[in-house]
Amino acid sequence: MSETKEKTGWFARLKQGLRKTQVNLVGIFTGGVVDEAFLEDLEFQMISADIGVETSALILERLRERIKLKGLKTQDEVKVALKEIIADILRPCEASLNFDEHKPLVIMMCGVNGAGKTTTIGKLAKHFAQLNKKVLLAAADTFRAAAKEQLAVWGDRNQIEVISQEKGDPASVAYDAISSGRKKGMDIVMVDTAGRLPTQTNLMNELARIRKVQGKAMEGAPHEVILVLDGTNGQNALMQAKAFDEAAGLTGLIITKLDGTAKGGVLVALANSREKPLPIYYIGVGETIDDLQPFKADEFAAALVGLDQIGGKKE
Ligand SMILES: Nc1nc2c(ncn2[C@@H]2O[C@H](COP(=O)(O)OP(=O)(O)OP(=O)(O)O)[C@@H](O)[C@H]2O)c(=O)[nH]1
Q1: Residues marked as binding for GTP?
Q2: CA 159, CA 25: separation in Å to the nearest integer?
Q3: Which residue ranges make up the annotated binding site?
Q4: Whose CA is nearest to atom 14 of ligand 1?
Q5: Per-residue pLDDT of the chain (315 residues; tens, 9 = 90+)
Q6: CA-CA distance, 159 to 135, in Å (whole number)?
Q7: Residues that bind GTP, according to the entry (predicted)?
Q8: Is the distance from the beta carbon of residue 296 to the nearest atom of ligand 1 less than 6 Å?
Q9: How far is the CA of 186 from the centre of ligand 1 (A)?
Q10: How far is 135 from 149, CA to CA, in rounded Å?
Q11: CB-CB contact of 93 with 108 (8 Å)
């Protein structure tokens, strides 16, 4: 498949995946006049798509400015402006993983139960292997027995080595995997951790310990600490990001399950939630490997409001 074709395929899937959020957000664009009542409705819709009160107010303020400055009259024009404003807020979150600085690059994944960590690790491992990277996985989710097996079976099927221990302590599984990854000249070591809730203080402290021990196996490891967020959690994601950051020092985010939610606007809230927003490395809109792709601000903003990517043309 050519790159352009692949890109088109992904954009179509992204748009389809974000359909529920899109309807929620721009369902009111029915071609009527742009007046005060319309803008107030739009603010309400943004909030209900989980963009958040503060970020919705900011977007509306910028939108009013543009309407005035550029003399925008139609809802179509306003929609394009909305897409641009959202893309501007999202752009600082665009980033790619850097594979060149560390060998192996150690990535620790964390998140609440069922966020999609193990599935995402599987998809990423395959993706990295396709890029000719040597990948090793650490099954440090020793809490849920099935998770270890899930990863082991998956590793067998895809010829990707998985390190686990019979009755392992998660920190020691991570330590072993990194040591082994160094010896074997691996490019990437991904550490899966058990799901935990921000309210489970012991488990949050354990995450900090798992992180610390990795630094003993390799200086500076883990180089990436990625929080996997379930997109269907909406605004709750902000609280999770804060708690996991405090416990484990996050370096980035992956947001899954954007296909199953009308709350996909939460990415805009996340991007506007701190002075230097966390990178969003990947987003997921489904169960297959092709449904997880790098996050691109313009693409996401266009899909969110139901426009074509280039030039903001209507569908
Ligand atoms: N629809 C949809 N489902 C997804 C996506 N990503 C993951 N899932 C599904 O989410 C479910 C939970 O995924 P897991 O990878 O087991 O979650 P986990 O975070 O490892 O779970 P714990 O180990 O219990 O913490 C699985 O059924 C996945 O197939 C996505 O982008 N879209």
Answers
A1: 111-118, 192-196, 256-259
A2: 43
A3: 111-118, 192-196, 256-259
A4: 116
A5: 445 555 568 999 999 999 999 999 999 999 999 999 999 999 999 999 999 999 999 999 999 999 999 999 999 999 999 999 999 999 999 999 999 999 999 999 999 999 999 899 999 999 999 999 999 999 887 777 777 788 888 888 888 999 988 777 899 999 999 999 999 999 999 999 999 999 999 999 999 999 999 999 999 999 999 999 999 999 999 999 999 999 999 999 999 999 989 999 999 999 999 889 999 999 999 998 889 999 999 999 999 999 986 544 444
A6: 10
A7: 111-118, 192-196, 256-259
A8: no
A9: 26
A10: 18
A11: no
Which ligand 1 atom lies nearest to the CA of residue 111? Answer: 19
- The minimum-distance atom of ligand 1 relative to the CA of 286 is 32
pTM: 0.93
Can you list the domains of the chain with their CATH numbers?
A: 3-93 (1.20.120.140), 105-295 (3.40.50.300)
Q: What ipTM describes this predicted complex?
A: 0.95
Give the integer Cα–Cα distance in Å for 192 and 121.
Answer: 7
Q: What is the whole-number distance in angstroms between the Cα of residue 79 and the centre of ligand 1?
A: 33
